[in-house]
Amino acid sequence: MASEPIKIDLRDLTDAHVAQALPHLGKCSYSAPCIIGTLLTQDARERFDKSSIIGLSSAVGGLIEDGLLTLPDEQRVLATALQRAFDSGKREAFDAQLAHVRGKLAEQVQS
To answer: Are 63 and 12 in contact (CB under 8 A)?
Structure first.
């Protein structure tokens, strides 16, 4: 029996989550945790890390496609871009993408 996908919402991403993830910038692991991993339980982080070991995609887009993770439709591209910037290990790129994501989320709330 397949388990229900884990639901996240980027609007829940706080400065505390960012601070928790920053020491692991560039480490492509949910358990570390990465930026998306901060929104998950430890159990979910470990489950997603195991996905890559058994040959499944552990990228945000792959987790969504495989039905393991879900988030509002309008956030899917944003989550993928944010994770990609985090995985790059470049702080400037991550900070710019985080600002972009937060700006887009604020626009969505206003509309």
So the answer is: no
